[in-house]
What we know:
Blueprint: H1 3-6, E1 14-23, E2 26-36, E3 41-45, H2 52-60, E4 67-72, E5 75-76, E6 88-91, H3 103-108, H4 119-132, H5 148-160, E7 166-170, H6 178-191, E8 197-201, H7 205-211, E9 214-219, E10 222-227, H8 229-234, H9 239-249
Parallel strand pairs: 3-8, 3-9, 6-7, 7-8
Antiparallel strand pairs: 1-2, 1-4, 4-5, 9-10
Helix pairs in contact: 4-5, 5-6
Adenosine-5'-diphosphate binds near residues 23, 28, 48, 49 and 52.
Amino acid sequence: MSAAQTTKAEGAAVTIAHVGKRFGGVQALTDVSLAVAPGAIQCIIGPSGAGKSTLLRCIDGSETADEGTIQVDGQPIETGTAGQPLAVGMVPQRPALFDHMTALQHILEGPLARLKLSRREIVAEAMAALERVGLPDRRDAYPNELSGGQQRRLAVARALAAKPRLMLLDEPTAGLDPDAASEVLEVMRGLAGSGPTLIVATHEIGFIRETGDQVAFMDGGEIVEIGSPRSLLAAPRQARLRDFLASLSA
Ligand code: ADP
């Protein structure tokens, strides 16, 4: 049996306690605490500038929190080393793709390359990841030969290939037309419950309602309200959240 069939990702527990982060004079995060159960789908909503990306980047280790702690399965995350230890996979808001690399090469050169696997095993894992996002037949395509939705799915496959126990997705459907967005949402639905814990900044309310286990509303660097999608979306307690939800459906 190949490594692709034997290694199984399992969701990590994430514990964020009292995290603060400043950029110069900007307080991007203030006293953010959040617990995500293993394998859960945690959604984060909130207006632009709320701190969603900064929070994801602190969890991924590409930013260092000024205060507080972030643990993935009880281990403090190591900062300054994005995606390390390979427990964490990130799909950033604008994933970098390279004109001269095929879809398969993007995955081979991604976090997967840091695993101690043979070339044959790495290729098998990369193909398995392309299959999970529905792109196995585009393995030799260059980014300019892929649609916007396919490019985003490739970025998901690149993060997924190393079987992270936690996946962070920063507005994975942002800037996509509705058809492309629904392709990406379909892939995300396939990830849900299949292993990794997901933390997703998204405004796709249908996805949150159907798939999310918990949703947090951020504003001004704080988590203002948190709860199950049903209760939070149907009966928001805070005026700020009511206004934000109204702005989405306007
Ligand atoms: P969101 O993802 O919710 O739109 P961000 O986390 O990107 O919010 O931003 C939160 C705040 O932090 C904003 O005021 C933003 O301008 C600021 N910020 C984010 N990253 C940086 C940075 N690298 N340097 C300076 N300010 C930043």
